[in-house]
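Action item from last week, closing it out:
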Amino acid sequence: MMMFQPENELPSNTAKFRKSLAFLLLISIFLAKASVYAKQNEPLPDGDEQRKYLIEKMLLIADPLLDALSKNQLREKMPVEAVEGQEEERKKVTYLEAFGRLIGGMAPWLELGPDNTAEGKLRKKYIDLSVKCIKNATDPVSPDFMNFNIGKQPVVDAAFLAHALLRAPNQLWGNLDEQTKENVLNAFKSSRDIKPYYSNWLLFSAMVEAAIYKFEGKADMMRIDYAVKEHQNWYKGDGLYGDGPDFHWDYYNSFVIQPMLLDITEVVLDDEKLYNTFLKREARYAQIQERLISPEGTYPPIGRSLCYRFGAFQSLAQIALLKALPEEVSPEQVRCALYTVIKRQIEAPGTFDENGWLQIGLYGHQPELGEYYISTGSLYLCSQAFLILGLPESDPFWSKPNADWTQKKVWNGGKINIDHALY
């Protein structure tokens, strides 16, 4: 009969082996933690290198989509990942989702236009590609003609496409042929069939009308006026709006509300005082957003639509683009913070499938985070964080020395400014 042998009575070789194994395990854990710590604390590249990296990653996201759509092969090539049972329903809307959201984030960079620099030549390539995509997306006889008016969702992404055209009126709208311009306007007008929900969705209808107004000179002003006035009523204070009458702890102030409200007001409403009010509120919200970014480039996973990833920081990127950051927030600390956030998420294993398409998740592939309305196309809202690339290479935003952002300063024992509410 085999009896249990206490550890102190084990054969000496066995005891030594177990002790060695335990020691090796402790060493491996220590080295793994040290490796993570070192990676998180490695010096950042300078601003020029950060810009090159961000352009490279923006185009990594864009390439499969723009290449396929430019060849009228988007429906054929783009996968549609969605909640089980929702795939067929999402196929009706996901292509406009993907294109409108992607091009909305790229637009300020494209609007810088072509020049003889390496980056300027690259922009020329993507301006031409984007123009061809707009043509195919809005041509009623194109295999990739997109749905602008069937169901509820199309008004959302018609608005993102409209926003893109407003952000790049010279390089996108200005390079369209006359027939395509007419097709775009017809597509936008067809979305009027959709009644928006009583929430941030009012801004989608208003954004579409703002583009029609900009490019045709007339629009349904009631949709614009109603959306702006209701959002004024939904302001909760300290730079934050409700999503409808109620406040939601999520990132929709950045995904939609503040960027669209500000740009609609600038394009359509001749009211400098109102515009400046909205700008101050968004600047305060951007200040809050900067403080949400941890020293490691993470942020709180609060609310719905987390699969839009770093698109959560559209407001911070837009305020930096507009050079409207609060005095306490330097452009270089915003640059370093956004670079770190984007790098951390985009390099997570599983962010892309084997063909380079985005997959559902916040950090890598996490399909359980996909709400019923999320599909592959939805994920391209992440591109809104690249608005900062609309600041040219020569801008001090890129040339100033690296700087720690607020949380990185404070958790390293540094000095930060006292935070104050906006009154």
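Closing note: Residues 28-38 have pLDDT under 50 and may be disordered.
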